[in-house]
Design brief:
By secondary structure, this protein is of the alpha/beta class. It has a single domain, classed as 3-Layer(aba) Sandwich (Rossmann fold). The chain has helices at 28-36, 48-59, 101-111, 125-134, 137-140, 151-159, 176-184, 193-208, 211-224; strands at residues 18-22, 40-45, 69-73, 86-92, 112-123, 163-171, 227-234. Strands 3-2-1-4-5-7-6 form a seven-stranded mixed beta sheet, with helices on both faces. α4 runs parallel beside α7 and α7 (176-184) runs antiparallel to α8. The longest helix is centred in the C-terminal third of the chain and has 16 residues, at 193-208. The radius of gyration is 18 Å and the shape is globular.
């Protein structure tokens, strides 16, 4: 069971669609998307270790055509795909790690078919800013966050590429206190008692999905959702 940030219903998967999960990590969106619909998914990442984990996780599921979910090691700056290759592209919690994120957006534009859908998520400004204020190590560690996006900044960069904004929502408000606690006690480590206890709550919520935490998360997301998620349609040039 994984924690998805992207709402797949907004991507309108159809049988036979090709989907790129750029910066797939350990495969949470790639595998979940493939389990949900009869589509071809390509998960792409730079981390060799994460891709090994993603492939191992995929093997846990009895997919008749597991070859329709592939994992590829490559850079988002130079995608190894032809123009207009994908019906949907997912890029979740990736762009904040990349120096030249606009070049990645241009590559996404290139491989996305005209009329195709693009889903992107990044950490929301205020919760992320608090993390930076509580701990410099949080974002200065190798592979950490290089910037804090304002929603209007990212939306503008994407619409400049002739991708039309469709909708927006927020996600994972219950994860915000965990990261604030984690940053506040950064020097003591993640095994500090209060951090450990809150993490157990999040694991319980993920596994059990009780109505009370699902309702609380939904109500708090517009106020303090950890991630902002936006959806765009690629306009024909």
């Amino acid at each position: 069971m994984s924690l998805e940030t992207i709402d797949f219903e907004r991507l309108n998967f159809r049988p036979g669609d090709s989907v790129l999960d750029l910066g797939c990590g350990e495969g949470r969106h790639s595998i979940s998307a493939r389990l949900q619909a009869d589509i071809r998914v390509v998960g792409l990442d730079l981390s060799h270790d994460d891709l090994i984990t993603a492939r191992q996780r995929l093997e846990d599921f009895d997919l008749k055509e597991s070859s329709r979910c592939d994992f590829v090691r490559a850079s988002g700056l130079h995608l190894p795909f032809a123009d207009n290759s994908f019906d949907q592209v997912i890029c979740s919690e990736v762009l904040e790690h990349i120096v030249d994120y606009y070049s990645v957006l241009k590559e996404i534009k290139r491989v996305l078919k005209p009329g195709g859908l693009f889903a992107v998520s990044v950490p929301r400004y205020f919760p992320e800013w608090v993390c930076w204020m509580l701990s410099s190590a949080y974002h200065e560690m190798p592979g950490g966050h290089l910037r804090i996006f304002r929603t209007s900044e990212l939306r503008g960069a994407i619409t400049e590429l002739q991708m039309r904004f469709l909708s927006r929502h927020w996600a994972h408000s219950l994860h915000v206190p965990y990261w604030w606690l984690r940053c506040a006690f950064w020097q003591r480590g993640e095994h500090t008692a209060v951090v450990t206890q809150y993490h157990r709550l999040l694991v319980w919520d993920l596994m059990q999905k009780p109505w009370i935490t699902r309702t609380l998360d939904r109500l708090l997301n517009p106020v303090m959702g950890k991630s902002v998620v936006m959806y765009f349609r690629n306009e024909a040039e």
